[in-house]
Amino acid sequence: MKNLRISAQLIMLVAGLMAAFAIATVFQIRSASEALHTERYDMLRTQVEAGLSIMKSYDARAKAGEMTQEQAKAEAFKVLTAVTYEPNGYLFGMDYDVTMVFHPVQQQVGQAQRGQPDKTGKLFREELIEQARKGGGITEYFWEKPGNPTGPVFQKAAYSRVFEPWHIVVGTGVYVDDLQVKINAMIWKALLIGGTIALIGMFAAIYTIRGITKPLSSIHDAIEAVADENVTIDIPHTQMTNEVGQMAKATKSLQDKVRERHEMAARQAEQQRELESERSQNAEAQLAEARQQAHVVSTIGQSLALLADGDLTVRCADLGPKYAALRENFNDALARLEEAMARVNLKGNDIAISKEEIRRASSELAQRTERQAANLEETSAALDELTVAVRHTADGAREAAARVNSVSADTRQSDEVVTRAINAMSGIEQSSAEITEIIGVIDEIAFQTNLLALNAGVEAARAGESGKGFAVVAQEVRELAQRSAAAAKEIKDQIARSSQQVEQGVQLVGQAGEALKRISDQIAGANDIVSKISHSAQEQDTTLRSISTAMNQLDQATQQNAAMAEETTASAEVLANDTGDLLNLIRSFKTGQAGAGQPQYRMAS
């Protein structure tokens, strides 16, 4: 398929579409034919089912007793014989022996028709019974039209179904040759329409294929011409908007690119010729430029050689018009350098004179600074010793004040202890008084208990023999009360003695507290005096420390000044030596000023 021409492929496509259309038409005609036959067969089945329903109704009436079975059959056969429908349709009935039981033609009723075929030899009646006993079906056969028994035969279709209660096959049939006429008409109509469409499609396909292949052939010829780099021909069909037009436009674009490539090749050849000419001119110009540059380099090299020897009076010779600015700049630079070196030489002489004065002044300053530093060092040492002595005094005063403060604190604590002791003694005295009152209450309780025990003994004696046990208990209670009273009296006497001793202790503690208070007052006075002494000593120590610090700082500053003076003297010496070296270096240059390079005095060693 890929190697076939486009026209052949399009013809095959059109032929395939026509074949598909023909196949679709055949299937459509067949479907229509089947639909017509199905419709006719359904009509036959409907008529038979209508006859069966009539027979069922009469059978039901016979079973209901309205009539006998024979009467029901006769009435049903009469009704079914009268049933007709178009075209030429009627119902008939046979038993299983192929004997006609009802028919519109009365002569056929009661006839045995077994073994009687149709005009083609087909035993269609036996097939009708067979189809009916299977549940109903269509039987096709050929028969002449009514009124023309010797005429031609036509296809006829019959539907049969059995009525089981009476064992009768009910059937009906119609001619179907009219269906074939309709089908044939449909076939001819489809062939006519299909042929017309096929002819029209063929002409349209040929026209369309020629409309595609002819422009493609023209474009193919144009592409071959462009491939041969022929850019003079006109590309056809560029005005078309379809794929052919796109191919034509692409070919036109390719032709334009080939034309541009030819033009570009021509321009490149022209540019190559111009480049060769320019290259030869540049080579000659570069050769002349190289000669001039060699002359310039040689002239400036000679001048720089003299300048390297220290000759500042040298000047550059003529370098030509192109390098005139370089010559002027070189000569101006040397002139300014010569002038500057002459001024530096003059100033160097002045610096040589000044540096001797600076060196002498620095030496004297260093000596005076050293003497001052020695004096300050001795003064600072004496002041440090005085500061240490005052510091010791202040430390002793602080220590004395601390001890006096400690004693004063101990005295205050002792005073507080005495006060608490007096308070404790007072509390003990009060507690003793309260205990005395409690013992009095106990003494009264013992008296009352003794009295109760006596009464209990009297009552026990009155009770006689039954109160003896109670009398013993009363006696024991009385003795216990007497012992309690004796113990309470003894405790009361001891508390009385203790109270006297506590009172004496309170008086003694009070006297000791007063003595301690007087001692505390005296210690407080001494503490104030020692505090003042300590404060004064601390102030003196602070003042002396400040003075000592200032002296130390002054000593350090003096030492630093002395070191700086020594450094200044050393720097002045180095400056003097550097100045001598600088003057020697300057004198190595030759300048145009007379005597500019001569020294004004001999440098000190």
Give an account of the 3D structure.
- This protein is α+β, with helices and mostly antiparallel strands and 605 residues long.
- It folds into 2 domains: 6-208, PAS domain (Beta-Lactamase, 2-Layer Sandwich); 326-587, Orthogonal Bundle (Helix Hairpins), CATH 1.10.287.
- It has 7 helices and 6 strands; from the N terminus they run ααβββαβββαααα.
- It has helices at 6-64, 69-81, 124-133, 177-227, 243-308, 324-463, 468-587, and strands spanning 84-85, 89-95, 100-102, 137-144, 153-163, 168-175.
- Strands 1, 2, 3, 4, 5 and 6 form a 6-stranded antiparallel beta sheet that branches.
- The two termini are 118 Å apart.
- The model is unreliable at 594-605 (pLDDT under 50).
- It is a multi-pass membrane protein.
- It is found in: Cell membrane.
- Belongs to the methyl-accepting chemotaxis (MCP) protein family.
- Residues 323-386 form a coiled coil.
Q: How large is the count of helical segments?
A: 7
CATH class of the largest domain: Mainly Alpha
Number of DSSP-assigned strands: 6
Radius of gyration: 81 Å
Question: Whole-Å distance between the termini?
Answer: 118 Å
Helicity, in percent? over 70%
Structural class assignment: alpha+beta
CATH architecture of the largest domain: Orthogonal Bundle
Largest sheet: 6 strands, antiparallel
Give the overall shape.
flat
Any idea of the CATH topology of the largest domain?
Helix Hairpins
**SSE string, helix = H, strand = E?**
HHEEEHEEEHHHH
GO cellular component, one term: plasma membrane
Coiled coil: 323-386
Keywords: Cell membrane, Chemotaxis, Coiled coil, Membrane, Transducer, Transmembrane, Transmembrane helix
Membrane topology: Multi-pass membrane protein
